[in-house]
Amino acid sequence: MADATKRVLVSFDSTMLRNLSVGMPIDLMCYARDSLKVTMKRRFEEDDAYFEMLTVQWIADTGVVRRHRWWRSKPVRLSA
């Protein structure tokens, strides 16, 4: 489920760049198929370190150049 969660967050990240009506916070809740038992629940705020790490890792892994989110106070920077 961890890989699926990462994919969802990267998808939200991409969507936020292209659609101004989508933004933080992101509320994530996971549960197993055919079960209503919540296995993970988390809110990602604008300055969430894990969300930022996923964004930077995705940029580095894909080589995609991303435009800066205008509403961020700090741009995402890749270390050399």
SSE blueprint:
Layout (H helix, E strand, L loop, with lengths): L1 H17 L7 E6 L6 E7 L4 H14 L18
Antiparallel strand pairs: 1-2
Helix pairs in contact: 1-2
Written account of the structure:
This protein is an alpha+beta fold and 80 residues long. 39% of the residues lie in helices and 16% in strands. The chain has a two-stranded antiparallel sheet with strand order 1-2. β1 and β2 form a beta hairpin. The longest helix is centred in the first third of the chain and has 17 residues. It is globular, with a radius of gyration of 14 Å. The model has no long low-confidence stretch (mean pLDDT 76).
Q: Based on helices, strands and strand pairing, what is the structural class? A: alpha+beta
Largest sheet: 2 strands, antiparallel
Mean pLDDT: 76
Report the principal-axis shape: globular
Could you give the order of strands across the largest sheet?
A: 1-2
Helix content: 25-40%
- Helix tally equals 2
Number of E-state strands:
2
